[in-house]
Every structure is written in structure tokens, then in C-alpha cells.
Specification:
With 111 residues, the chain is mainly α. The chain is built from 2 helices and no strands. The longest helix has 30 residues.
Length: 111
């Protein structure tokens, strides 16, 4: 038996198997009859109460409106002080650092 005969046999077996599955499904759907689907309804309840929002006084310009009361669910942030960056360099300084071998830019990663 060569590969062509083997693959042809496998293909014929698969075709017969899937053909029988198809026939079985078709016969089963005919015998089951056609039932009218019951009305299915998905109901999502919204249990939150609506909040009345009025017009807030505006200070003018591009500033946000002023409120007399704090916003609900507003959290106060704890500041850890001013943010300090390590300092960025422009492209010329980057090339100068690379030439001075102050940074690793093409070296292999040690394992």
C-alpha cells in the first residue's frame, strides 16, 4: 500500500463518517417536529435612583463650574510630594553618552 492509496482510504472514511452524521442530523430534525419557540425575554432591572442635576454657576472663561458641595464618591488624594524625574536627554546628548560608553546601547544581555 502506498501513500496515495492510504490517503484516499482515509479521505473516503472521513467522507462516509461525516455524510452519516449529516444524514442523522437531518433525520433527527424532521422527527422532532417544528415547535414554535416560546417567547423568551431578557429583563434587566435598573435599581439605581435617578439623580437630579441642576445647572451650576459658572465663573466664566475656561474654568470649571463652581460647586458649593463636594461631589459624591469624591476621594481626596494623599500627595507624596512633587514628582521627581531622573531627567531626560535630547538626541545629541544621547549620542554623546553612547560614544562615551556611559550607557549600554548595543551590548548583549547577560544571562
Amino acid at each position: 500500500m502506498n501513500w496515495t492509496q492510504f490517503l484516499t482510504g482515509v479521505a473516503v472514511c472521513y467522507a462516509i463518517y461525516y455524510g452519516l452524521n449529516l444524514l442523522f442530523d437531518l433525520l433527527r430534525s424532521r422527527t422532532a417536529g417544528r415547535k414554535a419557540p416560546e417567547a423568551e425575554e431578557l429583563v434587566i432591572e435598573d435599581r439605581t435612583e435617578p439623580v437630579s442635576v441642576g445647572i451650576l454657576p459658572h465663573r466664566g472663561g475656561n474654568q470649571p463650574p463652581v460647586t458649593d458641595r463636594p461631589l459624591p464618591n469624591a476621594r481626596t488624594a494623599i500627595s507624596s510630594g512633587p514628582i521627581q524625574a531622573t531627567g531626560g536627554v535630547d538626541i545629541r546628548q544621547l549620542f554623546a553618552l553612547a560614544q562615551a560608553d556611559a550607557i549600554q546601547y548595543t551590548k548583549a544581555i547577560p544571562y
